[in-house]
Design a protein that fits this description.
Its EC number is 3.2.2.4. One of its GO terms (cellular component) is cytosol. This protein has 243 residues and is α/β, with parallel strands linked by helices. The chain has a single domain, classed as Rossmann fold, CATH 3.40.50. Helix content is 44%, strand content 13%. Helix 5 links the parallel strand 5 and strand 6.
Length: 243
């Protein structure tokens, strides 16, 4: 067979033919992505539970203001019946799971962790765990399972998660999903986006895109926003049940 004649699917490929093996593997992987993309289009007609994902730094220690405020916020949300989802690690993720564990009869404390060589084990306050080998699939699960996102102070990983959700809301792959940024570090990010992306020369985004994240000063403001959104969610759920 010459180089210009493609192999058909029925032809066998020798493992000694490195290039053909690579092509088969490449096509198989791309085919798997098609399967995954098709499956993730499926959505339940209604969700039974309201779930809040809390993103935040893995470096914040117990006893600090940030840790205790995140735990208090999560505890208040759990008392409302909100399941709490985090990355399952230490720091503010642990604080959120610890807060959720204060109301085990009302809320689940969920961890979606990533397998990293330097990552600590999942924190002890998680009672339901999901494991991922890549950041991409992990972020996808956060998106598929969450009704609201609360972002506490954090580093590069937290910023990555925040911008991912922001972008999905911008292009309407997510809708009616609060993205709440808590604390004094986040208004600077929004100010930078406004100044850099909405310049007079070549606008790189739309003004309404800047209104997607909601910056709040403290946990109480975040709780208030989520309570209102959850009340609407419950109202819609009850109406669909009656129908």
């Amino acid at each position: 067979m010459n180089a210009t004649t493609p192999k058909t699917r029925s032809e066998n490929v020798s493992l000694a033919d490195e290039e053909e093996v690579k092509e088969v593997l490449s096509n198989a992987v791309l085919g798997l992505w098609d399967v995954v993309n098709s499956l993730t289009r499926l959505r339940p007609s209604k969700k039974e539970r309201y779930r809040v994902t809390i993103f935040g730094s893995a470096r914040v220690k117990p006893g600090t203001f940030g840790y205790e405020e995140t735990k208090r916020c999560s505890s208040a949300l759990a008392a409302m019946g909100c399941d709490i989802i985090t990355g399952g690690g230490p720091g503010l993720m642990q604080a959120a799971n610890e807060g959720a564990s204060s109301a085990p009869e009302l809320a689940k404390s969920i961890g979606i962790r990533i397998d990293l060589p330097f990552e600590q084990e999942i924190n002890s306050f998680v009672n339901q765990t999901f494991e991922h080998l890549t950041f991409f699939t992990r972020l996808h699960q956060f998106v598929l399972t969450s009704d609201a996102f609360l972002v506490a102070p954090g580093g590069i990983g937290t910023v990555l998660e925040t911008l991912m959700v922001w972008q999905l809301l911008q292009v309407h792959h997510l809708n009616n999903t609060p993205l709440i940024l808590v604390g004094k570090m986040w208004p600077g990010l929004i100010d930078w986006a406004n100044e850099s992306m909405l310049s007079d020369e070549v606008p790189l985004a739309s003004p309404e895109d800047m209104n997607i994240p909601r910056c709040v000063a403290n946990a109480d403001e975040a709780i208030s926003i989520i309570r209102e959104h959850r009340d609407d969610w419950l109202r819609q759920k009850n109406e669909s049940t009656v129908e």
